[in-house]
Design a protein that fits this description.
Elements: H1 3-8, E1 10-13, E2 19-21, E3 30-34, H2 37-41, H3 43-60
Antiparallel strand pairs: 1-2, 1-3
């Protein structure tokens, strides 16, 4: 991914809870990239939903 594209993407910082455009913080704290600020702001909701689906699928096996 080009630097220009990285800087236009949105990230959720799991240490601070902030939404950032571009890589402003150390990578270990980033979740993303996301296309929009709103998607990044709801990163933890998306992760929870994905985990619930995976847990349900594990229960079906």
């Amino acid at each position: 991914m080009s630097d220009e594209r990285i800087e236009s993407q949105w990230w959720y910082n799991d240490k601070t809870g902030a939404v950032e455009q571009g890589l402003k913080s150390p990578n270990r704290h980033h979740i993303g990239p996301f296309a929009t600020r709103d998607e990044a702001a709801h990163a933890l909701d998306r992760i929870r939903a994905n985990n619930e689906r995976a847990d349900a699928a594990d229960g079906d096996a």
